[in-house]
Specification:
The chain has about 160 residues and is mainly alpha-helical. It has a domain at about 5-85 and about 125-150: Winged helix-like DNA-binding domain superfamily/Winged helix DNA-binding domain (Arc Repressor Mutant, subunit A, Orthogonal Bundle). Helices cover about 55% and strands about 5% of the residues. The protein has six helices and two strands, in the order H-H-H-E-E-H-H-H. A two-stranded antiparallel ribbon has the order 1-2.
């Protein structure tokens, strides 16, 4: 399976929005600059995210986007589904009619279909808040390790 850049960039942008919003709107230009993404591409993604009810927008000076609900209530699968085609592991376009190879299913069809279900289940169980919590925990751990390295060593008195 290969995830498209749309899904990855949408999750990155939503994580950025959740990190910097603090209840206020965040301009897409700020997200684009921090994440090194094209502003016009983000505008397309956020239009889809808004239609899906994941973000809300505000126009004018000080305008931008904010999450429509708490980060722990927005799931990664919902973000990805809002901006791209559903995850599909098989090359069958119509699961109920036709098949992978001509009119029949390939020998591994059920394997790939089950894998797709597991991936969708995983992405549906991880919230945007979970992603942020994990990133913050890693930053804190990295800071503690760095502080430990920089701390002067005290020789044991004997």
């Amino acid at each position: 399976m290969q995830l498209s850049s749309k899904g990855r960039y949408a999750v990155m942008a939503m994580a950025d929005l959740a990190t910097h919003a603090h209840g206020e709107t965040v301009p897409l230009a700020a997200i684009a600059a921090r994440q090194q993404l094209s502003l016009s591409y983000l505008e397309q993604l956020f239009s889809k995210l808004r239609r899906a009810g994941l973000v809300e927008s505000s126009r004018g000076p000080g305008g931008g986007y904010r999450l429509k609900s708490a980060a722990h209530g927005i799931f990664i699968f919902d973000i990805m589904r809002a901006v791209e085609e559903p995850l599909r592991m098989t090359r069958c376009h119509l699961e109920t009619t036709g098949g992978c190879v001509g009119d029949s299913r390939c020998l591994t069809h059920d394997l790939w279909h089950a894998l797709g279900d597991h991936i969708a289940g995983f992405l549906g169980s991880v919230s945007l808040g979970d992603v942020l919590d994990n990133a913050q925990a890693k930053e804190l751990a990295a800071g503690a390790v760095q502080a430990d390295k920089e701390a002067p060593r005290v020789a044991a008195a004997g």
